[in-house]
Amino acid sequence: MQPDPRFLQQPKYFWANIRTLSQHIGYTVRLKKKKGDKAKATGPIRVPTVDEIALALQELGLSSDHLIGKDQKLTEVGKRVHAYFEYRAKAINDVVRPLLMDKDQARELFESTKAKLCPKCPIPMNKQKGAKKAPAYLTGLVNMLVEANIGYLPCDYDPRELTTVTLNDVPLRTLARRVDGAFPKPVNPIAVWEVKEYYYTTTFGSRVADGVYETLLDGMELEELREEEKIDVKHYLMVDDRYTWWECGRSYLCRMIDMLNMGYVDEVLFGKEIVDRLPVLAKEWVTLYHNRQKAKV
Q1: pLDDT given for residue 33 in this prediction
Q2: pLDDT tops 80 at residue 202
Q3: CA atoms of 110 and 140, how far apart (whole Å)
Q4: Quick check: 215 and 179 in contact, CB under 8 A?
Q5: Which of 55, 118, 248, 288 is in the most buried spot, having the most CB atoms within 10 Å?
């Protein structure tokens, strides 16, 4: 999924309103609990009404004048905020949800892709034990699709070092975390990516949530690099598992869409979206690679 151009250049205060209203009103529609259900029923992604926006800010002791005028109609900023809520809900409810796979669907796609591509790239195993131990399906798919579309060019499918950008052979910026993949390498990369797959997760714990915030940290560091040094490193997030993200972590899907439109990641690829989108991206990286090589001559 790519960002919506309408929201890419919004000021920081726009996102402050999105986050404040989202956390107070709620990211999802709360359904009535049915008799016998132990867990709360969670509905689709929520689009707050004008009245809900006004009430939320009132309850927080904040002004709503910047979003809602005296005529009780949305101001220009209010219209943008409400339009974003509508866009985010539609993007997740209608587009993201069908793209997410469960472990059986991911295994089937992994095996068919592996048989077709006959990859030589590394295919890591997941971190499970016993019967749950299996290839890391999404990571393996990402690696295979990248390899198939970069040809003979180098790629680090499992960087064991921090991502570093240099100037005149001197470190200029070094990211705080290791990424999951870098093209062509973690030193002066054209593109870096992170993979968050949780096919065997049964609860939504802090480890899963932290994965989203780790990507945000990387994105903020890359934003600073881009703004201060005029160096652009492409940054991607690939995520999957329907149960983890849709059943348990819908609010974190919202955070991913927010992060995308704030410019902290270039694209977020959800589940089987990688099959169509990743080859296109990899070919773009190849073009950037050759342009960089020409510039050195």
Answers
A1: 62
A2: no
A3: 7
A4: no
A5: 248
